[in-house]
């Protein structure tokens, strides 16, 4: 039985109660929105260490951190350190995107050490195992792909990215579009190559009911991937992207009918002025299903600083209604992120999410800022550090920049000419 089934039956699960407490809303509100698909609680029945988190309408904007091994960097210990860094920085969920030799072992280690919801992209494992067997990705068997999905569900993965909306018809739109960057989704490229070579429909679309059965059994949340997300501003909001979104809207309806939790993934690289339009389109076509966006990145020329690029777009997206932001690290477009990249990516994304929550009036969002303002007025540095999104960063930075301080409550920017002190003295 899934969270959706329980909610439709009028039951408030332990996960719904926990979400209500964490969000500062009523448990009945959570139950109602889960029943109608406006909120999801990725909580696989097999993930024993999980502390459930809710994503969706009226809730705080959540942040996801990606990491995982590659064929060039295949150390499980490093990924566990990245998990730790992501949790400490405030991530609400993580995704294991491993493509190294030890995919299963890495995922198992992350699941055993994560209290956060864990997501994966199952086609990565299916593709890697096909290649390891001496075949090309285009020779992957349908049964192998569904076998991986079933195995990951049994292991405890809470949500899976599956590119079900990439159909042969959608690929025809892509070919006619004449994109600059074609397909930048790795999972999407695997599936597209398989479809084009075999001249067969996407099995995740063709056998979608089978996918729903696996997800229902283990209460795995579907994250319907955007295989045709734009990889450059030039390709944003084109016919290929919108056609895939139309298909995803229909698949959302089918998942809800099957009592399977579902959210939808979105772009990508999007000019700032098109972000709100993208969010409104998804919300309309997918009937308010929670929206999970990568960034969006608002320029293509900020390599090395793409965590900032994504934070700008993420604020706009979440303020317009996106529910879940996937972080982008400074290493985006460069290489595999290290531990510091993970930390910087999460913090930048948390800033974007919080700024958006203030803009859309999420309950309690502005209270922390008001407390910070009062702490600054009092020159209470310990309170400021406590309230900061990155407290250790603030503590270390203050120490580094204020070694020559004469007064402990001031900073070297103003010293004795502190505006707060001067005005406070005269007002008193």
From TrEMBL:
Residues annotated for Zn(2+) binding in this entry = 269, 333
Obligatory cofactor(s): [4Fe-4S] cluster
> Quick one: which residues bind [4Fe-4S] cluster?
411, 414, 418
Reactions it catalyzes: 5-amino-1-(5-phospho-beta-D-ribosyl)imidazole + S-adenosyl-L-methionine = 4-amino-2-methyl-5-(phosphooxymethyl)pyrimidine + CO + 5'-deoxyadenosine + formate + L-methionine + 3 H(+)
User: Which sites bind substrate?
Assistant: 66, 95, 124, 163, 185-187, 226-229, 265, 292
User: What EC number(s) has UniProt assigned to this enzyme?
Assistant: 4.1.99.17
Instruction: Name the Gene3D superfamilies for this protein.
Output: 6.10.250.620, Radical SAM ThiC family, central domain (3.20.20.540)
Q: What exactly does this protein do?
A: Catalyzes the synthesis of the hydroxymethylpyrimidine phosphate (HMP-P) moiety of thiamine from aminoimidazole ribotide (AIR) in a radical S-adenosyl-L-methionine (SAM)-dependent reaction.
What is the official name of this protein in its record? Phosphomethylpyrimidine synthase
Please report the organism this UniProt entry assigns to the protein: Halanaerobium saccharolyticum
Query: Gene symbol?
Result: thiC
């Amino acid at each position: 039985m899934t969270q959706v089934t329980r909610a439709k039956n009028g039951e408030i699960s332990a996960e719904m109660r926990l979400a209500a407490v964490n969000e500062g809303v009523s448990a009945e509100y959570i139950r109602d929105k889960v029943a109608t698909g406006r909120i999801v609680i990725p909580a696989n029945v097999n993930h024993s260490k999980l502390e459930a988190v809710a994503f969706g309408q009226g809730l705080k904007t959540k942040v996801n951190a990606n990491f995982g091994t590659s064929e060039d960097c295949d150390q499980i210990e490093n990924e566990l350190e990245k998990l730790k860094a992501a949790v400490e920085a405030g991530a609400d969920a993580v995704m294991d995107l491993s493509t190294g030799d030890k995919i299963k072992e890495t995922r198992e280690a992350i699941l055993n050490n994560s209290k956060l919801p864990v997501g994966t992209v199952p086609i990565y494992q299916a593709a890697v195992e096909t290649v390891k067997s001496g075949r090309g990705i285009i020779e992957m068997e349908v049964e192998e792909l569904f076998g991986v999905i079933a195995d990951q569900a049994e292991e405890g993965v809470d949500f899976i990215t599956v590119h079900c909306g990439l159909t042969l018809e959608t690929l025809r739109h892509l070919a006619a579009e004449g994109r600059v960057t074609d397909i930048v989704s790795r999972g999407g490229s695997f599936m597209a190559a398989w479809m084009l070579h075999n001249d067969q429909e996407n099995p995740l679309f063709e056998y979608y009911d089978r996918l729903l059965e696996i997800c229902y059994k283990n209460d795995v949340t579907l994250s319907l991937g955007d295989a045709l997300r734009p990889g450059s501003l030039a390709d944003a909001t084109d016919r290929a992207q919108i056609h895939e979104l139309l298909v995803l809207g229909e698949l959302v309806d089918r998942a809800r009918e099957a009592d399977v939790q579902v959210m939808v993934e979105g772009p990508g690289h999007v000019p700032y002025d098109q972000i709100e339009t993208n969010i409104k389109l998804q919300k309309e076509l997918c009937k308010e299903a929670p929206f999970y966006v990568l960034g969006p990145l608002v320029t293509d020329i900020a390599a090395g600083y793409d965590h900032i690029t994504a934070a700008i777009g993420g604020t706009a997206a979440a303020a317009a209604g996106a529910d879940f932001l996937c972080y982008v690290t400074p290493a985006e477009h460069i290489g595999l992120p290290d531990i510091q990249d993970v930390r910087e990516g999460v913090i930048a994304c948390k800033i974007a999410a919080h700024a958006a929550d203030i803009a859309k009036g999420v309950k309690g969002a502005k209270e922390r800022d008001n407390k910070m303002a009062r702490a600054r007025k009092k020159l209470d540095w310990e309170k400021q550090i406590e309230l900061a999104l990155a407290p250790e960063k603030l503590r270390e930075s203050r120490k580094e920049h204020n070694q020559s301080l004469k007064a402990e409550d001031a900073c070297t920017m103003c010293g004795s000419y502190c505006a707060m002190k001067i005005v406070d003295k005269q007002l008193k």
